[in-house]
C-alpha cells in the first residue's frame, strides 16, 4: 500500500504518521508512506523524529500547490490523507491569503492529481469550525456550513470542493470534521500549549473576552483513530463528524490548567475578545459511531495530565518555536 500524507510534519499529521508506523497497524507493515509538507512555521521535522529512520517513510519538503510535484507523488497512491492547511484562526484574521491559497487552491491541486492517478481513497481532514457556531445541541453532518472566520471559510471551501470531486467525478473522497484537538507536539500558539508553556514559565495566560466560549476537547489519538476508521471503511462521498471529547468553556479549561500547574487567578490576563469569536462548537458524532464503531477512549483528565507532562519534559522542542513565533497573545 502506498499512502500520501500531506501536512505530516504538523501536529495532527505527525501523530497520524507516528501511529501508522508505530507497530499495531498490520495494514502498514509493507506500506510506503510519503509525507508531503512545506515546513511552514507550523511544520517541524522534529515531530517525525521517532520514526525518521523507518524505511517505510519518505519525507518530501514541498507545497501542495505545486501541481507538478503533487502529480509525481500521487502516482501509484492507494490512499491520500490530507492534513496540510494553514490552521490558526488568529493568523487568518490578520491576513487570509495564505489560507485561501493552501486550504482551497492546494486542496484542488491534490484532488485533481488524485483523480488523474485514480487513487483508491482520499480522506480530506476538515474541521467542526466549518459549521459556524451553535448555542445548543449538536450539528449532524447534513447541517449547512456557515463558517465565520477566514480560516473556517477557507476550510469550508476545501471541504465542499472535496465533496464536489465525488459528485462530479466519482473520486472516492471522505470528509472528516473534528472538534478541537489537544496532545503533544501542538504548536505553542494554540490555546492549550500556549497556556501550558506560559504557566510552566511562570507567565500569565491571555484569556479572550468573558472566557465563555465552549470547545469540545478531543485527544489527538482519538481524532487519528476516527480518521483511520474512515480511511478503512468510510463510504465514498460521505462526511463523518468526529467528536465526543469534553466540552468546556475556556474559563473552565483555564481553571483546570491553573490547578494542574499550581498557579492562581493572578496568572490570568483578560484580553479583548477575538474578532468574530465563535461561541460554541458541538458535533453530533452518531454517524461514525454507528457506521464505523468509533468511540473516543482517552479520558480528558489523563490526556491533559500526559500533555502537560510532555510539555514539561520537552522544553527543547517548544522553547525555540516560541522564541521564533511571529504571533503572540
Ligand atoms: N488542531 C485542531 O484542533 C484541528 C481540529 C479539526 C481539524 N483540524 C484540521 O487538521 C489538519 C491538521 O491540523 P494541525 O492542527 O495539525 O495543523 P498544523 O498547523 O499543526 O499543521 C499543518 C501542517 O501543514 C503544513 N503545510 C501548511 N501549508 C502547506 C502547503 N502549502 N503545502 C504543504 N504543507 C503545508 C505545515 O508545514 C504543517 O506541517 C488541518 O487541516 C486542520 O484544519 C485541526
Automatic annotation (TrEMBL):
Keyword set includes Ribonucleoprotein: no
Transmembrane segments: none
Enzyme Commission no: 4.2.1.46
Keywords: Lyase, NAD
Cofactor: NAD(+)
Family matches, as InterPro entries: dTDP_Gluc_deHydtase (IPR005888), NAD(P)-bd_dom (IPR016040), NAD(P)-bd_dom_sf (IPR036291)
Catalytic activity: dTDP-alpha-D-glucose = dTDP-4-dehydro-6-deoxy-alpha-D-glucose + H2O
Keyword Phosphoprotein attributed: no
NAD(P)-binding domain: residues covered: 4-306
Family to which the UniProt record says this protein belongs: Belongs to the NAD(P)-dependent epimerase/dehydratase family. dTDP-glucose dehydratase subfamily.
Name of the molecule in the record: dTDP-glucose 4,6-dehydratase
Gene source species: Saccharopolyspora gregorii
Gene: rfbB
Amino acid at each position: 500500500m502506498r499512502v500520501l500524507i500531506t501536512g505530516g510534519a504538523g501536529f495532527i499529521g505527525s501523530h497520524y504518521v507516528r501511529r501508522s508506523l508505530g507497530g499495531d497497524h498490520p495494514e502498514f507493515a509493507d506500506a510506503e508512506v510519503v509525507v508531503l509538507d512545506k515546513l511552514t512555521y507550523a511544520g517541524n521535522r522534529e515531530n517525525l523524529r521517532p520514526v525518521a529512520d523507518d524505511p517505510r517513510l519518505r519525507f518530501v519538503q514541498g507545497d501542495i500547490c505545486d501541481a507538478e510535484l503533487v502529480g509525481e507523488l500521487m502516482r501509484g497512491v492507494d490512499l491520500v490523507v490530507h492534513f496540510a492547511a494553514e490552521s490558526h484562526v488568529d493568523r487568518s484574521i490578520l491576513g487570509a491569503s495564505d489560507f485561501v491559497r493552501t486550504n482551497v487552491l492546494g486542496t484542488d491541486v491534490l484532488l485533481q492529481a488524485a483523480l488523474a492517478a485514480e487513487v483508491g481513497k482520499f480522506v480530506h481532514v476538515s474541521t467542526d469550525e466549518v459549521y459556524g457556531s451553535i448555542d445548543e445541541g449538536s450539528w449532524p453532518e447534513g447541517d449547512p456550513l456557515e463558517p465565520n472566520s477566514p480560516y473556517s471559510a477557507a476550510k469550508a471551501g476545501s471541504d465542499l470542493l472535496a465533496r464536489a470531486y465525488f459528485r462530479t467525478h466519482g473520486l472516492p473522497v471522505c470528509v472528516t470534521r473534528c472538534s478541537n484537538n489537544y496532545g503533544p507536539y501542538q504548536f505553542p500558539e494554540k490555546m492549550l500549549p500556549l497556556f501550558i508553556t506560559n504557566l510552566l514559565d511562570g507567565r500569565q495566560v491571555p484569556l479572550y473576552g468573558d472566557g465563555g466560549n465552549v470547545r469540545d476537547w478531543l485527544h489527538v489519538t482519538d481524532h487519528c483513530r476516527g480518521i483511520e476508521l474512515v480511511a478503512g471503511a468510510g463510504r465514498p462521498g460521505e462526511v463523518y463528524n468526529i467528536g465526543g471529547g469534553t466540552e468546556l468553556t475556556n474559563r473552565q479549561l483555564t481553571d483546570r490548567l491553573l490547578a494542574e500547574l499550581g498557579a492562581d487567578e493572578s496568572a490570568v490576563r483578560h484580553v479583548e475578545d477575538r474578532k468574530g469569536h465563535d461561541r460554541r462548537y458541538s458535533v453530533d458524532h452518531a454517524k461514525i459511531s454507528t457506521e464505523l464503531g468509533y468511540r473516543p477512549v482517552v479520558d480528558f483528565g489523563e490526556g491533559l495530565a500526559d500533555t502537560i507532562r510532555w510539555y514539561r519534559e520537552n522544553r527543547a522542542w517548544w522553547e525555540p518555536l516560541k522564541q521564533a513565533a511571529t504571533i503572540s497573545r
